[in-house]
Each structure stands twice: as C-alpha cells, then as structure tokens.
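Example 3.2
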Amino acid sequence: MKIFKLVLSVLFVLFAVVQLNDPDPWSWVALYIFVAILCGLAAFNKSNSYALLAGLGIIAIWMISLVPDFINWVNMGMPTITGSMKAESPHVELTREFLGLLIAGVAVGWLYISHRKQ
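Structure, written as tokens:
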C-alpha cells in the first residue's frame, strides 16, 4: 500500500505541473499539491484526520459549485471533452474541472477511509 500511496503522490504532483499552463493555475496547483502531500504523508503513516477532512470539504464545496455545469454537459448528450487540449467552449473546461475534482476527492476519500481503519 505504501508504494501505491507514493505513486499517487507523484501523480498528483504531475497533475499540478500540467496545470501550470492553465488560465487559472494556482488554485489547481495548490489543490493537487495538497493532495500529493496527503498521499505522501499517508504512505509513511503520518495522516491527519483533520487535514483529510479539510481536503474532502474543500473538494466537495468546489465540486458542488460545478454540479450545474456538469449536469448541463450530461443534458447536452455528453459531447466530447477530449477533442483538443484547448477548451473551445465553457462546458469542456468546467466538465474537466469537475472530473479532476472527482479524482482528487476519490483519492482523499480513500486515504481517509484507510486512515480510519488503522
């Protein structure tokens, strides 16, 4: 499990690096680095319940703000969001952001559950 958590940590650092060319990079870089740190700490059994819950709270609130845009994308018939790296329309960027938050939320949720089991 330690290796998996370390791999997750590295992946979230890479996610943060990729965000540097985004129009709004700093909130995403901060979030992904925070998740990377949580994964790294969990790998060495140094998790903190409050930090994990804070991360889940931030991600949940951010996701809730994007739910209407995600539902709009679903109602549009889920047109491709992978056509190009440039987001030509708002639903592409907002849907990608929602899914990025979902990935981060699943990772932090899993860390919290595994921390509680210890």
